[in-house]
Structure formats: structure tokens, C-alpha cells
Amino acid sequence: ETGINAEYMGEVSNILKNLIKNWKQKMDQYSQEEVSQFKEAFSVIDTEKKGRVSAKDLVSLFERMGESVTEEEVVEIMKPYDAEAKNSLDFKQFLGIVQKEIGCTDEEEHKEAFNLFDKKKEGAITTEDIHCVLGKFGEKMSLKDVQDIVDEIGDGERVLFDQFSEMMK
User: Could you read off the pLDDT of 117-132 as tens digits, one per residue?
Assistant: First the structure.
């Protein structure tokens, strides 16, 4: 047990996910027509017309689709996209969930993100690789904290793609 709590790992996962988002904008993957359709769906779900959909709004959507989910389950689905922990999503965050749910490019995105860290193309990333890339993106994290992550998700020396991808989910 390295003592890393789930909240800390979630924070690290969010940092990495934000790197991916900044590196490759999700909206660029859709045609204008598709984005327009997603915006229309978003506006229908956004019952309060505040430009955000709440967990309750999404529960109602799932219920209308015949799915039975709790608000807690929806909050868990939203967590990776709800950086402000408001239990609500703006359109871009909503689009991220839509992309994941329709199975567009999770595997591809994970591979692209992994390749950002795996500069030597060895199929594994080290503590130093992660620390260096995060530093280039302005994320201040000590080498010890990064080593704790590698200990938690990898074998203590490196992180393989499958381990990285699992952490990103």
C-alpha cells in the first residue's frame, strides 16, 4: 500500500485527461452537423437553460431512454469531465461523455497520450518521462509524487500501456 488515495489518483487522471483535451480538441472530430445535433440534444436536457446539465438532468435523460440509474451513478460517470466538481457539465464536457459512450476514440486517445510520455518508443513510461511531460505542460508535481503514481499503477519502475489506459478510464 503506497498510501495514495482514490481522490489523488482521480486528480492525476484529470491532469492527464486535460492534457489530452488540450492536445487534441474533441469538437474537431465532429462535423458541424453532428455538433449542431449534440447542441440541440444538450439544450433539451438543459432544463434550466443555464448552459450546464446537472446530474439530475442526466438521470432524467437515462430514464427517458429506459435506463435505470441513480444520481450517484451519474455523478461517478461525470467525475472525469466535471473538473470543478459542480455535479454539472457544460457543453464541451457533455460532448466528452457522449464521445466516450458512443465509443469513438478512447483507445486512440489513450495511445496518443501514452505516446506523449513514451518519447523513447519503448512501450513503457517511467517516472522521469511522466515528470518531464507534466512539467512541460506547467503541472508542478514532485518526482516523489510521480514515483508514487508509478508504484500504484505500474510496477514501480515503469507503466505499460494497458496500465496507463486502465488508469485513464
Answer: 888 889 999 999 888 8
Task: Write the burial class of residue 138 (CB in 10 Å: 0-12 exposed, 13-18 middle, 19+ buried).
Answer: exposed
Please give the model's pTM, rounded to 2 decimal places: 0.43
Q: Which of 82, 101, 98, 91 is nearest to 39 (CA)?
A: 91
CA distance 31 to 158: 38
The tens digit of pLDDT for each residue in 13-38 reads 666 666 555 444 444 566 677 778 77
Note the helical H segments in the chain.
6-23, 32-45, 55-64, 71-78, 91-101, 106-117, 127-136, 143-153, 161-168
Alpha carbons 18 and 4: distance in angstroms, whole number: 21
User: Residue 169's closest CA among 155, 153, 151?
Assistant: 153
DSSP secondary structure letter of residue 125: E
**Using CA atoms in the order 21, 27, 29, 35, what is the torsion angle rounded to 10 degrees?**
160
Q: Which residues on neighbouring strands pair with residue 125, listed in sequence order? A: 159
**Do 24 and 109 meet the contact criterion of CB atoms below 8 Å apart?**
yes
Query: Which of the residue ranges 10-24, 59-73, 87-101, 121-135 has the most confident prediction, judged by mean pLDDT?
Result: 121-135
How far apart, in whole angstroms, are the C-alpha atoms of residue 20 and residue 27? 13
Compute the residue count for the chain: 169
